[in-house]
Amino acid sequence: MTPAGVDVQQMMLALQQANPNAFYRSNINALKSGVVLRVPTSAEAQAMTIAAAAAEVRRQNGDWRAGTPGKPAVVANAATRASDTGAPAGTPDTGDRLTLVPAKAGSGAGTQGGGAAGNGLHQELLRTKESLASLQQQSAELKARLKDLGTSTARTSTCCR
Predict the structure, then answer these.
(1) pLDDT tens, per residue, the chain with 161 residues
(2) DSSP per residue over 88-149, as a string?
(3) DSSP for 49-98?
């Protein structure tokens, strides 16, 4: 999952930066259950040097092992940060799962009109369409069952009079 030229520690911190609401206590070791992660671009991941990323990962690992509350880490300046796209508010937790949402191929940070925010909205639209299709299928199945029950009840009431 790590693009060429990006260190694993840089990518971990870039994931945290791109998805701040996905981690408890602002710690890379405490990923919340059921969140959808936006995968940062290579440029976003390289916003922090490898040495600085290694130091920050060591600090967060130490905090996590010690059980101390983490303080928010500034991984990159606000200019390199795209919009936050986490799980939609009100989404029920249906168990442990991890969903990765990749950046569009060939798009750099802020090079297209919609940028990362547009990509996040596109992904949310796709999830909503999938959910709608599922609900429509369930509705059709329930209507068919209801029709079958109505037909069965009508036959029972006419035969037993």
Answers:
(1) 677 888 999 999 999 999 999 998 889 998 888 888 888 888 998 999 999 999 999 999 998 888 866 555 444 433 333 444 444 444 455 555 566 666 655 544 444 445 666 777 877 787 787 777 777 877 887 888 888 888 776 666 666 65
(2) PTT----SS--EEEPPPTT--TT-SSSHHHHHHHHHHHHHHHHHHHHHHHHHHHHHHHHHHH
(3) -HHHHHHHHHHHHHHHHHTPPPPPP--S-GGG------SPTT----SS--
**Residues 29-64, buried b or exposed e (16+ Cβ, 10 A)?**
eebeebbbbbbbbbbbbbbbeeeebbebbeebeebb
CA 141 to chain centre: 30
Q: Which two tokens stand for residue 54?
A: 């290694």
Q: Taking a C-beta distance cutoff of 8 angstroms, is the pair 88, 126 a contact?
A: no
Residue type, 78: A
CA–CA distance, 45 with 8 (Å, rounded to integer)? 9
- The two tokens of residue 10 are 């840089």
- Closest by CA to 22, choosing from 34, 40, 12, is 34
